[in-house]
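Explain this record to help learners:
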Amino acid sequence: MTDDASTRPVSRRDLVRRGALGLAGVAAASQALRAAERGLPGSVSPHGAHEPGNAVGQGRVSDASIDPMVFLEQFDGGEVSRDAAGRTVREFHLTAVDRDIEVAPGVFYAAWTYNGQVPGPTLRATEGDLVRVHFRNRGTHAHTIHFHGIHAARMDGVFEVVHPGDNFVYEFEAKPFGLHLYHCHAVPLKKHIAKGLYGTFLVDPRTPRPAAREMVMVLNGFDTNFDGENEVYAVNTVPFAYHHEPIVVRRGELQRIYMINLLEFDLINSMHLHGNFFHVYRTGTKLAPDEFTDTLMFCQGERHILEFAYEETGRFMFHAHQSEFAELGWMGLLDVVERVIA
């Protein structure tokens, strides 16, 4: 068969580019493809997406493995103790498990997860701490955990493959301070990342950064029909999560966003903030900002700390500056108010 436009199947991305599909159409097509893979009728949703008032592509995601508003400010400091030398020891527990997650209303994705969620928990330590991660593989494929940072080769999570049913303990000193990540490094690497095996690893400097409202935003997406292209884009897994429920911030309060790009299949992602500029701390490894801008590009695995405060009240958008990404879920709102009402 020749590879010309008349013989190739039309993908949902083609339809989006032609303006034929909005979010509802994308969600409906995703559900039909996922249902077909499972041998189900395309009109069936396992979670009632066809109930009155909850049509496919409308309403909210209810089984995404995380609550985006909770995940935004949820940091795991581990189980804390001290060793014989008085050094802080932080122990974490991560388990690889297979789980279907809802990545758009009525659209379910067969994910591979750390602790049953995508992204995995945000792990937090201070530079110089001894980090000990107890990893159990309860999934159906071999996995690892590769931490970005400085550590011994035997703790790199590349050759120490952990097979289903097996365990492994990673142990290393938390360094350097900055914003890092962790992800599975088993092959094929692209598939293990796209399936959801990733998370944030934050190492604070010994001298704390100035007080601020802190948030974690992991930029990700999902290839729901397995064609090597993403059909859904998001911050913290759920498309339009912070558009449906804007993030409330106080006017004049310093905001600090730990932003990591773990989008697979697309070479570049981006962040644009409306009505403001932000200071960029590239990789978070310095205490002085590198840049002052309103738009920032990210390669996969690239991460930066963004700091800003709003002078005006009102609702301001933030989104990818690739219009297609924004239209397919990577957009949100900041609701700037004089004070936060408890």
User: Anything to note?
Assistant: The domain at 213-337 is CATH 2.60.40.420 (Immunoglobulin-like).
